[in-house]
Design goal:
Distance between the termini: 33 Å
Number of domains: 2
Number of strands: 3
Helix content: 40-55%
Radius of gyration: 20 Å
Structural class: mainly alpha
Strand content: 5-15%
Largest sheet: 3 strands, parallel
Length: about 140
């Protein structure tokens, strides 16, 4: 059994009662810490990033509402928004129109395809060769 399978197996079998006293104490501390952070943020500055649901923008519509993400980006700035991209055509559109650094929320099964599109090593005919980034790739690898 590989390491991740052991973790998944533990997580699905674990219950509070099955944890050691030390693990229970640490769990309580983490929960209280998380609640403290949440309560402390209540009076803080407004949330800096929003997640835009694709329902009504690129899902279940006859024509994509490309004006909606454009208005959101104009108002908040590209770096402060995360767009839901429910299928490859949608995230290819975002990359083609807003560049490879656009923040996208995709299904876990699409992460490899998205990252390949971002790097210009995978794409459709309309996207192939059009993805250009000035991001330092050495930083990605800790070089």
């Amino acid at each position: 059994m590989i390491h991740i399978e052991r973790i998944a197996d533990f997580a699905t079998r674990a219950s509070f009662d099955s944890l050691s006293t030390r693990a229970r104490d640490q769990t309580k501390i983490r929960i209280l810490d998380s609640l403290g952070c949440a309560l402390g943020a209540l009076q803080g500055e407004p949330i800096r990033q929003i997640r835009d649901e694709s329902e009504g923008i690129t899902e279940n519509v006859k024509t994509w509402r490309t004006d909606v993400p454009a208005r959101i980006i104009d108002e908040l700035g590209l770096e402060k928004v995360i767009f839901e991209a429910a299928d490859p055509d949608v995230f290819a559109w975002y990359i083609k129109n807003y560049g490879p650094e656009v923040n996208l929320f995709v299904d876990h099964s699409q992460i490899v395809q998205l990252e390949c599109l971002r790097r210009g090593i995978w794409g459709t005919a309309s996207l192939w060769g059009r993805v250009v980034t000035n991001k330092d790739r050495k930083a990605d690898h800790g070089i």
